[in-house]
Amino acid sequence: MQRRWALGECWLWCERTAVPVLWLGPALWEGGNAPIHACSWCIRHLESRVRGVLTRGADPAPAPGRRRWAPGACWLWCQRIALPTLLLGTVEHAGHQVPLYGCDACIQRLEDKVRAALPYVPVS
To answer: What is the chain written as a DSSP string?
Structure first.
């Protein structure tokens, strides 16, 4: 599959707009989904973090249905460590899956982005 770069907004760390981005996959939220795009810098940063976890011998990714907060490191914007985090899904690299965690503030920020990207559906 050939990846196509397009001008858009980076949804990861830099949050720049009008930059070349790649589609990474959908963000699922309350029955809807929105495309997640990232610039080359943020993709390299994500790959570096995944490689680091794999190098340290990551545990198998927990089941995505887990909804318990656990102490850990936030992989999203703040990148803080030793705070309550929630499993958001997994990142795959070179055939390995690594769990992706986020803190409450960063999850809220991501949910706001997803909500803004979803088509407006009037409540009846």
So the answer is: -----EEE---SSS--SSEEEEEEEEEEETTEEEEEEEEHHHHHHHHHHHHHHHHTTPPPPPPTT----EEE---SSS---SEEEEEEEEEEETTEEEEEEEEHHHHHHHHHHHHHHSPP----
